[in-house]
Amino acid sequence: MKQLFNITSSVQDKIPIDKLIEQHRPALLQYACYLLGNLEDAEDAVQDVYVQLHEYRVRPQSYLPSNPKAYLFRCLGNLCISQLRKQKRTIFVAIDEAKAQFDQEPQTFEEEYQRASRLLSQIPEEQAEVIRLRIYADLSFAEIADTLSLPLPTVKSRFLYGIQKIRSHMLATSTPSFNF
Amino acid sequence: MNCKEFQDQMVNLFDKECSPDVKARLITHMDECASCRAEYESMLKYVDMLQPKHSPVWESMSPKHSTNGLGHRLLRVAASVAIFLLGVGVGISNFFSQNARATDHAAFTLSQAIDNVRNVGSIHYVLKARMKPNDNFADFYPELNFINIDIKKVSLDGDALWRIEKDGGRTVVCDGQHQYLFGDGITPLVGSVNTGFLDQFALLLLMPHEHIYYLQKKHFINDKRTVLTQTETENIITINKAENQYGLEMVFSKNDELLRSIKVWHEEDGQKTTVLESVIMDYNVSIDKAQLLALPFPSDDSRWNSAQGPTLNFGKRLDRLQQETATHAAQRIMNALISGKPEKASEALYYYQGLMPKLVEMFKGCSASQFSTPIIEDDYAGVFVRFKLATPDGKVTNKRLALRKDNKQQLWVLDGGI
Questions:
Q1: ipTM score here?
Q2: Is residue A180 part of a domain?
Q3: Banded model confidence at residue B55, pLDDT cuts 50, 70, 90
Q4: Which residue has the higher pLDDT, B223 or B376?
Q5: Which of residues 183 through 202 in chain B touch A, CB cutoff 8 A?
Q6: What is the DSSP string of B101-114?
Q7: Residues in contact with A94: Cβ distance below 8 Å, sequence separation at least 6, in sequence order
Q8: Do A11 and A83 share a structural domain?
Q9: For residues B94 and B15, what is the distance between their CA atoms, to the nearest angstrom?
Q10: Looking at the structure, do residues A84 and A119 belong to the same domain, yes or no?
Q11: CB contact B57 to A (< 8 Å)
Q12: At B81, which CATH number?
């Protein structure tokens, strides 16, 4: 895979980049969807990453990524986050309010996205990021380690701690039920 | 493995690249230790809460070439079969039920087998299926005889190269960059590597993670009809009447954990009819690359048509066709064929170009009437239009055309039922 980005001729390098994006498009789109909240923005973001990758043709080899797939997801993640910052879109929801909505299964992507965003907003972003990459980008822990330039055990513990924290939040806010 | 080791390594069960050995040790420990099992299940509950079940991506990626709508659809089961047939690069994690213990093992066996099948260098399967040779890859017809489907797949430098050939009918070839569909009387089509020529089978290629999750939910978490039977040499997973009255049985050898046979049946009023059965399931066989990727003419030949559908120049005709209703399109198609002037509906008959003379001959002297308003069904991306067809001998039959407009210019295109 490494040599994909080392080709500097004009036409040939388009095929591998196209192919790379094409190969991972579903996971890229899904990951972006869960960051941005809708398909349209997600498609734009994937397209922007595609353009960015094409620009790498003209850069010196020392700047080329060693793991294209990991690089692809890192680019996309950064792009989505900077877009969210520009739009200043942050979701603040009281945990008990969120809890009330978790009893029912979401029926649409929109509901599901809201639920996932709420759950992930309760934990540190570094843990949420690993969970997003694992669940929505369908990357393995090793690939996530490459993507985020982290040691593998750190990735695994962030995933575990993140899920544990979500669990504690949910359990802490669970209210007793009354049966009449 | 003790509890401390389990706690340290449990996170690997949520990875997509956990070694079968580690997984097996974790599972064994859970069988022996209820509290570790409870801890894992508790974590799984929250991972499960985050798993996508709906997605705009999924909705927008419905199959491109679906069905003639008259056969029995076999969505979920066909898809789970397809995992093995194509050995697609799917990542499966959290493949465990929260409640049913037997189901855990079935899911575990399945997830391991998928990994194993994915990792083999080449596959050669021959299946017999009750399908129509020139029909899609989603519909089974319990009333028809079996035809053979030959499947060859080679993994090469990270690409999956494959060829699926229906005896006397459709062939689909993927060279890692494009998919080609061709066959006797079929318009030769070329599309990207993600084109939906394989109908529901292709959904797995397009959206594996989410779709597999759906399968997991359907068959292994919510569905208690999944049974794992273990013999000395084999693990057998049976899903009884899984979906649309279909059942599925997969047999894995314990020795190499590869899928060794598969069977799908249709069950109605207590009567079972096998609709798909494996004849040959070989792995790591020698496959000739040239033969695998052989096409009827070179890949850059102008005879290949784009799988994206017809393209019209901007103008009045384009405007008119874009505003046309499905009912009107169906009428126009039938009138064009009956009057012997198929060129009047050439865009709508895009997929049938090679069959035009045959179709004109078939509808000679017929008349079509009582076209219905479009009918939408959940599992089809297009619509259906019903009408009555009167043949020259005075016989009247009910027909149903499948039309779709998910092509570039949003023109109604005939997709089946003719």
A1: 0.76
A2: no
A3: low
A4: B376
A5: 192-194
A6: HHHHHHHHHHHHHH
A7: none
A8: yes
A9: 8
A10: no
A11: yes
A12: 2.50.20.10
Looking at per-residue confidence, does B331 or B416 come out higher?
B331
A118 and A168 inside one domain: yes
Domain coverage including residue A159: 91-175
List residues bridging with B387 in a β-sheet: B399
Residues of A in contact with B209 (CB under 8 A): 26-27, 30, 138
Determine, for residues A33 and B55 on separate chains, whether the beta-carbon distance falls below 8 Å.
Answer: yes
**Would you say how long chain A is, in residues?**
180
Count of structural domains within chain A:
2
The mean of the pLDDT values for chain B is 74
Q: Is the Cβ of B233 closer than 8 Å to some Cβ of chain A?
A: no
Cβ–Cβ gap B209/A27 under 8 Å: yes
On whether both A83 and A157 belong to a single domain, the answer is no
Taking CB atoms and an 8 Å limit, are B14 and A39 in contact across chains?
Answer: no
Do residues A117 and B68 make contact, with C-beta atoms less than 8 angstroms apart?
no
Using CA atoms, how far apart are residues B172 and B80, in angstroms rounded to an integer? 19
Q: Count CB atoms within 10 A of the CB of residue B58.
A: 23
Q: Is B62 on the interface with A (CB under 8 A)?
A: no
**Letter string b/e over residues A113-129, b meaning 16 or more CB atoms within 10 A of that residue's CB:** bbbbbbbbebbeeebbb
Q: What is the CA radius of gyration of chain B?
A: 24
A150 burial level (CB within 10 Å; 0-12, 13-18, 19+): middle
Chain B residue numbers touching A108 (CB-CB < 8 A) = 54
CA distance B372 to chain A (A): 31
- Portion 154-173 of B in contact with A at CB < 8 A: 158
On whether both A168 and A100 belong to a single domain, the answer is yes
**Per-residue pLDDT at B369:** 92
Residue A107 and residue A66 share a domain? no
Q: Is B11 on the interface with A (CB under 8 A)?
A: yes
Facing residue for B54 by CB, picked from A19, A112, A157: A112
Q: Using pLDDT thresholds of 50, 70 and 90, give the confidence band for residue B252.
A: confident
Same domain, B146 and B59: yes
CATH code of residue A11 = 1.10.1740
* Average pLDDT of the residues in B238-262: 73
Q: Is the CB of A39 less than 8 angstroms away from the CB of B15?
A: no
Put simply, the answer to whether B193 touches A23 (Cβ < 8 Å) is yes
Question: Pick from A25, A108, A116: which is nearest to B50 by CB?
Answer: A116
